């Protein structure tokens, strides 16, 4: 069972976060690997691009949003059956525009993440993300 040896594919991933901690998740469109799975939006870093440039391009292409500022959050490698990826996660609290479904994908603002199934590389990040989202507020309540 030999597998082609190559480095991971760099992917820019954005977490749009509202002031109340809600984050935007998108459903992978038909025809893509893991069709129907939910993920944070993003895409491959192209030759000559920085990760942040790729993030801004992908958000405009996929959702029609202009990312005004984004901070690096974490980097995770994951090996899928179809690809080895290095996911560069950025958190943005500043963007312009409202999400539009430019690739026929569904999207949803989530407080407590309830959409399923989640892309496997996303699953372990939800707990880390909750710590990030709710560490700033000790008085905020989460309506059931």
Automatic annotation (TrEMBL):
- Show the CDD domains listed in the entry: NUDIX_MutT_NudA_like (cd03425)
- Does Magnesium appear among the keywords? yes
Q: Where is the Nudix hydrolase domain?
A: 8-132
Keyword Transcription found: no
Provide the GO biological process annotations: DNA repair; DNA replication
Q: Which GO terms describe its molecular function?
A: 8-oxo-7,8-dihydrodeoxyguanosine triphosphate pyrophosphatase activity; 8-oxo-7,8-dihydroguanosine triphosphate pyrophosphatase activity; 8-oxo-dGDP phosphatase activity; 8-oxo-GDP phosphatase activity; metal ion binding
Q: Which reaction does it catalyse?
A: 8-oxo-dGTP + H2O = 8-oxo-dGMP + diphosphate + H(+); 8-oxo-GTP + H2O = 8-oxo-GMP + diphosphate + H(+)
- Gene3D superfamilies in alphabetical order: Nucleoside Triphosphate Pyrophosphohydrolase
Q: Which Pfam families match?
A: NUDIX (PF00293)
EC numbers: 3.6.1.55
Could you tell me the keywords of this UniProt record? DNA damage, DNA repair, DNA replication, Hydrolase, Magnesium, Metal-binding, Mutator protein
- Give the binding site residues for 8-oxo-dGTP: 28, 39-42
Question: What does the entry list as the binding residues for Mg(2+)?
Answer: 42, 62
Record's signal peptide? none
Q: Which residues form a coiled coil?
A: none
Cofactor(s) the protein requires to work: Mg(2+)
Domain of life where this protein originates:
Bacteria
Task: Give the enzyme's main class according to its UniProt record, as a single word.
Answer: hydrolase
Family classification = Belongs to the Nudix hydrolase family.
User: What's the protein here called?
Assistant: 8-oxo-dGTP diphosphatase
Phylogenetic lineage = Bacteria, Pseudomonadati, Pseudomonadota, Betaproteobacteria, Burkholderiales
């Amino acid at each position: 069972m030999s597998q082609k040896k190559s480095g991971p594919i760099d992917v820019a991933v954005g977490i749009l976060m509202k002031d109340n901690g809600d984050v935007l998740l998108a459903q992978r469109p038909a025809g893509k690997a893991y069709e129907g799975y939910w993920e944070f939006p993003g895409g491959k870093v192209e030759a000559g691009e920085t990760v942040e440039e790729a993030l801004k391009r992908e958000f405009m292409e996929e959702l029609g949003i202009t990312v005004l500022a984004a901070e690096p959050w974490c980097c995770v490698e994951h090996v899928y059956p179809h690809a080895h990826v290095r996911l560069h996660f950025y958190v943005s609290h500043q963007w312009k525009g409202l999400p539009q479904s430019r690739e026929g994908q569904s999207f949803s603002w989530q407080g407590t993440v309830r959409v399923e199934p989640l892309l496997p590389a996303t699953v372990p990040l939800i707990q880390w993300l909750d710590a990030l989202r709710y560490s700033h507020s000790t008085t905020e309540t989460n309506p059931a």
